Amino acid sequence: MKTVFSILLLLMMTMGCSDDSDMGDKDVSIVGKWQMTESYVSPGGETEWKEVEDGRIHHFKADSTFTSNGLECPEGRFSITGDTLLLEFNCNYEVNSRTIKFYFDDGDLFLTPIMPMCVEKCLSKYERID
């Protein structure tokens, strides 16, 4: 009986553990300067990674503010909930905020907009530059 209980306990512990390897790097912070190096966009056909020259730069600061040279409003505040990044702009434009999914892989930052900007898949790869 002890053997059966031990096996069941071991199985339950094993099933309760998850492999977080597909969740990206846990120890990388979004704080810093990030430059877009590649873009993965599907215009309705085949999709592939394409290199981006002089890509936009987002600077996420420790005080939860950001600046960017690639957005309609170049500054604002950001907050993170789980794998979601919320950008709140300081400009009086039609777009006051933008919600973006993000993850890290091998130290790179990957961003994909949540709002319906793309018919299929949109994904941008950023490398830390500071």
Automatic annotation (TrEMBL):
The record places domain Lipocalin-like at 30-100
Domain of life, per UniProt, equals Bacteria
Database matches in InterPro entries = Lipocalin-like
Protein name, entry field: Lipocalin family protein
Organism per entry: Sinomicrobium weinanense
> What taxonomic ancestry is recorded?
Bacteria, Pseudomonadati, Bacteroidota, Flavobacteriia, Flavobacteriales
